[in-house]
Amino acid sequence: MFGALPSVTGRTPGAIPRPRRCRVRRWYEDALGWPTAPGDPVRLALGVRFDVLDVPAEAGAAALRRLGPRSPVAVRGGRVQLLVAAGSAEELPGLLEWLDWGTLPLDLRALGSGACLQAPLPPAASLREEAPSLRVPDARSAGGTGDAGVPSPPATGVAGVPSPPGADVPPPRAPGPGAGRPLPLGRLGSQGAAVWLRPPEPGCEVEASLPTLSALGGGGDAPDLVRLVDTVATHCHRVRLRRAGAQPPASRTQGR
Hints:
By secondary structure, the protein is an alpha+beta fold.
């Protein structure tokens, strides 16, 4: 089933203590107004306030240029999770077809209504404000064991996101003046726990900052979903071509 509860003799590695799980759930439901699914670990119900595009790190780094500064972005397991307007997951197949990406296998997933997303831990300061007596590990710490017996997020590799074994994706680079610097996509918690690269802001309507299809050619502050999808699809395709080119000739022939 979902994450195991601590046993009598010890805590499951990577498990969040029950008091903090309750505070995490309250932060999402009360401070943000985001619905959560029952059970553990805490999961966010998608298709209500937002959908999610799940893309490789390189595509996620490129996508940051298409997002507003307040558009929430999470990182988990070497992948970037982009929050987009609710209903975008249903629009994605047709949108990829319209952009001439429909016939290509892309490492691009859309999660929408009926799906759930593992809730990234809120910023440590947010939990401390709610419960000053509850000490939680800061996401900026590297290695070691954090407060409440939870391992602190370890230092990460390329672009702040550990690459899976055998990955050949080069470090994403920050656009603009810092182009020579790896883009810090954040740190991963223990056992691939999700963390916020750009956390949501309590009191701000998240919908106003999310990419939406209706923003194409229109006004408003919402980024354009069409250009965002085209950007991530392009980089997903580049990653695919790079990996195919790295295979031995015999392997490429067998894969046809």
